[in-house]
Amino acid sequence: MIYFHNATKIYNGHVKGLYHLNLSIQRGEFIFIVGASGSGKTTIVKLLLREINLDEGEIIVARQNISLIKNKMLPYYRRNIGVVFQDFRLLENKTVYDNVAFAMKIIQASSKDIKKNVPVVLSMVGLEKRYKSYPSQLSGGEKQRVVLARAIVNKPPILIADEPTGNLDPNNSIEIMNLLNEINKRGTTVLVATHAKEHVDSMKKRVVTLCDGKLISDVKCGGYNAN
Amino acid sequence: MRISSLKFYLFEAFDNLIKNKLMAFASIAIVSSSILVFSISFYLARNINYILTQFNNSIGLSVILNDDLNENDISKLYDKISKIRYISNVKFISGKNGLKKFLEEYENAHELLEEIENDKILPDSFDIDLKDNRYYGIVIDKLENLKIYGVERVKHARDEIDMLMSIRKVIKITSTVIILILSLISVLIVINTIQLAVNLRREEIKIMKYIGATNWFIRWPFIIEGIIIGLTGSIIPVLITWPCYSKLIIEINNKYPTLKNIFEFMPGIIIFSALMPIAICLGIFIGIIASAFCIKKYLNV
Fold this sequence. Notes:
Chain A is an alpha/beta fold. Chain A has helices spanning 41-48, 74-78, 96-106, 111-124, 140-152, 170-185, 197-203; strands spanning 2-11, 15-25, 30-34, 56-61, 64-65, 81-84, 158-162, 189-194, 206-211, 214-219.
């Protein structure tokens, strides 16, 4: 489903964001990308979202070379990817319900579908009773669950989470990881860039370790060995 | 555009306006003040033009004929003059009728002229109306060329007409320049104001881009916001200037009643109905340009 061929990204002419990365991720896989700060985890996320472009190599997502996607078509490509950020990035002036519904409005879903799907997704992440709340009234864990709901409401085939537990306490982190696992079980390919050693170790998923932009290990059912 | 999308854009636009009340108020006030200045110039320009037209129409053109022409000569000359392009109407005034007309206009002249019995005190002439006063000069030249057929002289006010034409031209150019400058200033100020609103929401735009919103999906609410600001900002000054203008001309006419004999002001309703669509278009244009410009740089995420 996702293939990196010789993917290279150099910042400011000399900083290696990613260096000749070759990686393939199959449909329905759950994969952790781990590594120290500056190892290239976030670069992978940004490249997959086409927020930045490769300097060399190519990335193929669902059989298309994403570097060749025209800017005009970029929004349609991004709709295939649900994204979860460490800093939540919720719309502060919208309620929980509206934040999730917003993602459906963007793809011009009908009001009927929005009314049907949003409560289902909110219930899945355990926020059905907080649908009227604004982000400022939620805890970190609740905010991240709203972000998850927003990311999956359009049923994207891929979900990318960049440090999803970075701002959360241990209990909330476990809940978010369980939710990601749940989403993966429903068939979504999940890619999590993280520092959270305890989760990586406990979940026994595929672990790709990066160091200075290079892939140093790729282990199925692995643990965190970035350091 | 789908109806559901339009509803969404409208809701977003109004929601943003309400949430950023102060900014919206400032933008409307800026557009209003620009359109107000524009409206005042518009009322002035239209009136000056209207008054000039009245003067212009009152300036006649007549052809004085030689005394020795018989009816046949006069008829031939009438045909020749009627065939000249740009002339809409030719009216023969015999010397007798000319005197009658003169006495009607200047009643005091009766005493002066009562002892004169000669009917031929005034020569025969043609009064000429033009289709368009812009061709005044050409017509005069053509009439001057008819001297061999019995035209003694052409009575005209070419200099006065030329002067009026140049005044009108200057006013037209000046008002166009003023309108262009004002529009530009308004766009710049509104850009600044909307820029602040967009800055506050750049994070929101970024999020929208990440979750797959198209540029037009992001743009529309801002453009509708611009339209609402422009529309409100243009309607307010137009609605204010109309009654003020009507009241002002009533006041002037009451204070200077003799002015009516010289010229009339243009009725407020005529200017209002011409100004309203122009001001609305201008306001909407300012709003759209400003919002489209502001949002452009945040769309490249």
